[in-house]
Design brief:
Layout lengths: L22 H6 L3 H6 L16 H7 L1 H8 L5 H26 L4 H12 L16 H10 L11 H24 L5 H11 L5 H9 L5 H4 L2 H30 L5 H9 L3 H34 L3 H27 L31
Helix pairs in contact: 4-5, 4-15, 5-7, 5-8, 6-8, 8-9, 9-12, 10-15, 12-14, 12-15, 13-14
Length: about 350
């Protein structure tokens, strides 16, 4: 089936997209950090192995992504999250080219093991000397990600990043063997491979608001966070399917999972994937509108805590609408020319390959 013959359904997005007013400032400095870290080669800071060319870098439109997902962030918060986004994509693209496209599992495991040393559980831990752009970027971020008001995130965020980089190795294992994950397994795994567990941090960074402790670990809030995270990664699978399967022969994709489990065509699986993504968003809305209010009442949240919760939810909605805008508008997701192999029926294998970036 030709790429242009596949209809990419657009998942439902009821929240309006808003733009952070600091985008022009971010755009002016968007290359600076990437060059300093060696992700993007420059005249003054050459890199032995840059991850991106200048055209590839700008096609990602990461400054636009950051300004769309965090419309209310301060310039400081926007700049920090922009670097965080750049690092996640740098890891993903580096891992894909260095290990997934070559099938180098041993190299991927060694690379990942070293990265764990850049994710200390305690502040002030001595980090190894970085030997590549990904390590250098992560070491730099470790000095910036935990200002006093976000210090409570240190263990949780570094744990989420560890799950993110570990997921890359598992993706490579799946692709090398042609093992297509089960749908239930994949839904959970996608939160890890998309770095979705870091998204609540980004929302808190942008809004300055926290989910009140009295309700943070309740069933309702946990389900709400799951639905919030599921929309991100599963919607990304639709947007990035053509590039992943055409260029990288990936099996770690919702469309591939559904086509295999249902024995359906790619087009049928595309629409089933869009329905599933929409269902997760509807569940998020249901929880916010129907189950959260009585929970807030039972927990006895005061007016200030209720205002803070609403600010966080407003930030979460903006995060989702910003991602949706990026998926449907960034050159990174433009259809590639050529053909996408029609996914075979259940039981068939897909060639070993490489894969995505965090926001693929």
């Amino acid at each position: 089936m030709k790429v242009q013959d596949i209809e990419l359904p657009i998942p439902r997005m009821p929240y309006p997209v808003r733009l952070n007013p600091y985008l022009p400032v971010l755009r002016q400095e968007t290359e600076t950090w990437a060059r300093e870290m060696g992700m993007l080669a420059g005249d003054e800071t050459p890199s032995d192995r840059p991850i991106w060319t200048r055209s590839q870098f700008h096609a990602m439109a990461v400054d636009q992504l950051t300004a769309w997902t965090l419309p209310d962030a301060s310039l400081l918060g926007l700049r920090l999250n922009h670097r965080f986004n750049l690092w996640a994509l740098a890891w993903d693209d580096y891992f894909a080219s260095a290990f997934k496209q070559t099938g180098d599992l041993a190299g991927a495991q060694a690379f990942t093991s070293r990265l764990h040393a850049f994710l200390p559980a305690e502040p002030g831990a001595r980090l190894p000397e970085s030997v590549n752009a990904v390590e250098k970027g992560l070491a730099d971020l470790q000095q910036r990600l935990f200002p006093p008001r976000l210090a409570h995130w240190r263990r949780q965020l570094n744990r989420a990043l560890a799950r993110y980089i570990d997921a890359g190795v598992q993706e490579l294992v799946n692709s090398r063997s042609g093992r297509v994950p089960d749908l239930i397994e994949y839904a959970q795994f996608r939160r890890e491979s998309f770095a979705a567990y870091t998204a609540p941090y980004s929302v808190e960074l942008a809004t300055g608001a926290r989910i009140p402790e009295q309700i943070r670990h309740t069933r309702t809030v946990c389900a709400l966070l799951d639905a919030f995270m599921d929309y991100m990664g599963l919607a990304n699978d639709i947007a990035s399917y053509q590039r992943e399967v055409h260029d990288e022969y990936d099996v770690n994709n919702l469309v591939v999972v559904l086509a295999t489990s249902r024995g359906s065509t790619v087009q049928e699986a595309m629409h089933a994937a869009a329905d599933l993504v929409t269902a997760r968003l509807r569940h998020f809305e249901h929880l916010v509108q129907s189950e959260l209010p009585p929970l807030v009442q039972r927990a006895g949240l005061d007016q200030g805590e209720r205002i803070e919760l609403e600010a966080w939810l407003r930030g979460a909605r903006s995060f989702l609408s910003g991602l949706h805008a990026w998926y449907t508008g960034a050159p990174r997701y433009a259809a590639v020319s050529g053909s996408v192999p029609e996914q075979r029926k259940a039981g068939a294998t897909v060639p070993a390959r490489a894969r995505h970036p965090s926001a693929s």
